[in-house]
Design brief:
It contains five helices and three strands, in the order αβαβαβαα. By secondary structure, it is an alpha/beta fold. The chain folds into two domains: 87 residues, Periplasmic binding protein-like II (D-Maltodextrin-Binding Protein, domain 2, 3-Layer(aba) Sandwich), CATH 3.40.190.10; 43 residues, no CATH class. The longest helix has 19 residues. The N and C termini lie far apart (78 Å).
Length: 165
Amino acid sequence: MNYVKLALGAAAGVALAASASAETVGIGSTKAGAVSQITATISKAVSEHAPGLQMRKQTLGGTQQYIPVVNAGELGFGISNIPQYYMAINGTGLSKGNKYDNLRLVTTMMRFTVSFVVPVKSGVTRISQLKGKRMPTGFKGAPLFVNMFNGGISTDGLTKADMKS
């Protein structure tokens, strides 16, 4: 019986030592939304299928908050869309004055297609027909959307001033 206890104890010790030697890496995430779901899924898949590697989701307020942390090497990974990545590495837009030159794209996971959607009964079929219409502005919780919105309406010659807020 003592041999069984010794074997079980040794096995437990080996298992604990193996799990203690597993490398843990973090992935930057948002609190909610698609990025939160994606990072949770990636973390689980890496932790379950990459021997010796554990990935943990690190929740921050948004991409703009974890870009500097990834850039500094304090966080192994983050999820970013191309416009925000571009602004980060060039020190423009949302990253104005802060050029993050220690970032690299690893993979493209999905296309980030954005479009204006209106009810069919509105009769709007092109962006120029949005002139004078009530549209959302500000986007405090998603500052990138300001750039996307302004860029979208400018493709047909409109500015924010052409909209009702």
